[in-house]
Design goal:
Layout (H helix, E strand, L loop, with lengths): L10 H4 L9 E5 L4 H12 L3 E6 L2 H7 L1 H6 L5 E6 L5 H14 L3 E6 L17 H17 L3 E10 L23 H23 L5 E6 L13 H7 L12 H14 L2 H4 L3 E3 L2 E2 L19 H15 L7
Parallel strand pairs: 1-2, 1-4, 2-3, 4-5, 5-6, 6-7
Antiparallel strand pairs: 7-8
Helix pairs in contact: 2-9, 5-6, 6-7, 7-11
Length: 315
């Protein structure tokens, strides 16, 4: 890679000089925070962006700047998608497939974090159901639209270090619920899903990666109470260096359109580079080995198909 980027790199720095005219890119969660900035930066460099959001009215208001920034043929289209409802997921995916317009990139950006215990409309624990199962069905149903050379980027988090997936009790039916354990499970699932996708699709020249955007103060943290913040930041928020939203979105666009596909495929990226594998509990960087385990990825795939009652033979 000719240019070296890092934790403070922004989307515009990462995409400097790039012409994405003719590229069609789907971004979920295009109504706030990282989703808006990801869409803006890609459209500003010529990409046709399809932004998916649960609340279309909110998304229309929030993305006015994306349309203003669009250049060189870039633009934005919005579609309705509620990842906490498989009916909505399937309706949105089916409509996109029926339209028949191919994609070069899917960025599965949307999600929830550390929310109180609850259930999706299909009865799944909220974080696992929204962050993983919703995207699992949505992305798999869109695979027929992916061009050779396409990429799928799943937003994970350093929060995957809080917990591995629990395939015996994914909905906390028998396990005491903790917001960050649930979040950790869902973020590990995002990485394992990328591993599973990459193994199945790389023979078709389609690659998948997971990314950690970094710590950013966005709407994602709406459920963080002082008690929860103290659990993950014992020294207080002042001890943590937050990224700006353009810095937080940089790893997504870097992995999607800048880094060589062979470098990021099946990997976990942070701060605009491929992360090292580490099981050191004191490390605040890197990826846990359990999150990249191919057998674990296949087990999660099978469990996910069972839970959503749908099979995806995409490989």
């Amino acid at each position: 890679m000719a240019n070296t980027f890092g934790a403070e790199s922004t989307t515009d720095e990462v995409l400097a000089g790039m012409n994405l005219k003719g590229k069609r890119i789907l971004v979920t969660g295009a109504s706030a925070g990282l989703g808006i900035e990801t869409a803006r930066s890609l459209a500003a460099h010529g990409a046709q962006v399809v932004g998916a959001a649960r609340d279309l009215d909110k998304a229309k208001r929030a993305t006015e700047g994306v349309r203003v920034a669009a250049a060189n043929g870039g633009g934005l289209e919005l579609v309705q998608l509620d990842l906490a409802s498989l009916a909505s997921v399937r309706n949105c995916a089916d409509a996109l497939v029926a339209a028949g317009k191919p994609f070069d990139v899917i960025i599965a950006n949307a999600g929830v974090m550390a929310c109180p215990k609850g259930k999706t409309s299909d009865g799944f624990e909220t974080q696992f159901g929204t962050n993983h199962l919703g995207h699992f069905v949505f992305v798999n149903k869109l695979v027929p639209l992916l061009k050779p050379g396409a990429r799928i980027i799943n937003l994970s988090s350093a929060g995957h270090r809080f917990a591995d997936v629990d395939l015996d009790d994914p909905n906390f039916d028998r396990t005491e619920y903790h917001p960050f354990v649930s979040y950790g499970r869902s973020k590990t699932a995002n990485i394992l899903f990328s591993v599973g996708l990459d193994r199945r699709l790389k023979g078709r020249d389609i690659r998948s990666a997971a990314v950690h955007p970094g710590g950013i103060q966005t709407e994602l943290g709406r459920h963080l109470t002082p008690e929860l913040i103290a659990q993950i930041m014992p020294a207080g928020p002042a001890s943590f260096k937050f990224k700006t939203i353009p810095q937080g979105s940089a790893t997504s666009v870097w992995s999607a359109v800048v880094a060589p596909a062979s470098a990021v495929g099946g990997r976990y990226c942070e701060d605009c580079h491929v992360a090292d594998v580490t099981n050191d509990p004191a490390s605040r960087q890197g990826v846990r080995s359990y999150a990249l385990d191919s057998e674990r990825a296949d087990a999660l795939w099978a469990k996910s198909e069972q839970m959503v009652d749908e099979r995806f033979n995409i490989g």
